[in-house]
Design goal:
With 68 residues, the chain is mostly helical. The protein is built from 3 helices and no strands. The model has no long low-confidence stretch (mean pLDDT 80).
């Protein structure tokens, strides 16, 4: 996508096709670099994206007795 929008020189990995490019107007990179004073404050923390992942993990088999 970066090659499409920004003429990036990096080559993407192997893929067959990307569909729906006409519905995308830009691409941004969000990494896990800290955005606050502690390494635990990153974009995923602020957006709440880990919430559903944590919930799914908590509901998976074998986790209840593991003490995590």
């Amino acid at each position: 996508m970066f090659r499409h929008f920004y003429r990036a020189k990096d080559r993407p990995g192997a893929y067959k096709a990307i569909r729906g490019m006409e519905f995308v107007d830009k691409a941004i990179v969000i990494d896990q670099s800290p955005i606050g004073r502690t390494p635990r404050s990153n974009p995923v923390t602020y957006t709440g994206a880990f919430g559903p992942i944590r919930q799914l993990f908590a509901e998976s088999a074998g986790v209840a007795g593991a003490g995590v």
